[in-house]
Design a protein that fits this description.
Blueprint lengths: L1 H21 L2 H23 L10 H18 L3 H20 L7 H29 L4 H26 L3 E3 L3 E5 H22 L5 H29 L14 H21 L2
Antiparallel strand pairs: 1-2
Helix pairs in contact: 2-3, 2-5, 3-4, 3-5, 4-5, 5-6, 5-9, 6-7, 6-8, 6-9, 7-8, 8-9
Length: 271
């Protein structure tokens, strides 16, 4: 599994880095749209406990379409429109849920609507924050800043936990995660942030960088645990198999989407 992880990273990282660094905003937004589409399918695959046929029903399809519109609005920096589209997404799901509603199907239908609302907050809006962050004057640097902190912290947590982990972090959710791995990941978050600041963003205050790295790192670990909770509840090991050694797209971005809204907020209102 370790070899597959590294081979996937060796192939994917240079391509993604080149796209983010040299590609226009449209290409980045297009990449996020593709990622969002795959993650949407994987999310509902988990939500429906592996029943792929339920993904192609009106409520989840409307939800996925609403998520795509939210990402497109973010690509045009229409931040005010995001709230309306999120509301419209939920309102549309509510209307669709009323067709075919009956006493015996009511709980299942309303659970689907709740899962769709969760999708808008859990996946669509955080991915929109990534697009909005990319559109900021220093957006390219901040995208790399966030990605380096999250992904290298995640890698450190994995390897520290694998080789030195003794105490379980939350065995009911994820038996493989350890307290030592979580501490190792957080230490890597801080170290990576300081190194990145020194080389690429020297104007940023060191204390604020450490605060940002700590909160982003903790958010990322919570995102990882939350996706594990979803999969544990549905008894699904991976959200997909599109990335050898990593699982699905959602398995790979679960930490990033938890940290993305905080990164956008920090960039706009703190730095």
């Amino acid at each position: 599994m370790h070899l597959k992880r590294w081979l996937t990273s060796i192939v994917a990282v240079p391509v993604l880095a080149s796209l983010i660094l040299y590609g226009p905003m449209a290409s980045f937004a297009g990449l996020i749209l593709i990622v969002g589409a795959i993650a949407s399918k994987e999310y509902f695959y988990i939500l429906f406990e592996g029943d792929k046929t339920r993904i192609w029903t009106p409520v989840p399809l409307w939800c996925i379409a609403s998520g795509a519109l939210i990402l497109i609005a973010a690509a045009f920096s229409a931040t005010g429109l995001l709230f309306f589209l999120a509301w419209a997404g939920f309102a549309g799901m509510a209307v669709l849920s009323m067709y075919g509603f009956s006493a015996d199907k009511g709980r299942r239908i309303l659970d689907m609507v709740a899962g769709g609302a969760q999708f808008l907050v859990y996946i669509a809006l955080p991915l929109a924050c990534l697009i909005l962050l990319r559109g900021r004057p220093d957006g390219v640097a901040w995208i790399f800043f966030l990605v380096f902190i999250i992904f290298l912290g995640d890698a450190a947590a994995f390897y520290v936990g694998t080789y030195f982990g003794r105490r379980k972090l939350h065995p009911a959710i994820s038996p493989g995660k350890t307290i030592e791995g979580a501490i190792g990941g957080l230490a890597a978050n801080l170290l990576v942030a300081l190194l990145f600041k020194m080389v690429f963003l020297p104007e940023l205050p060191t204390l604020l960088v450490l605060v940002f790295a700590a909160v982003a790192g903790i958010s990322g670990q919570l995102g990882d645990l939350f996706e594990s909770e979803l999969k544990r509840t549905s008894q699904i090991k991976d959200s997909g198999n599109i990335l050898p050694g990593h699982g699905g797209i959602l398995d790979r971005i679960d930490a990033l989407i938890f940290a993305a809204p905080f990164a956008y907020f920090f960039n706009v209102y703190v730095f």
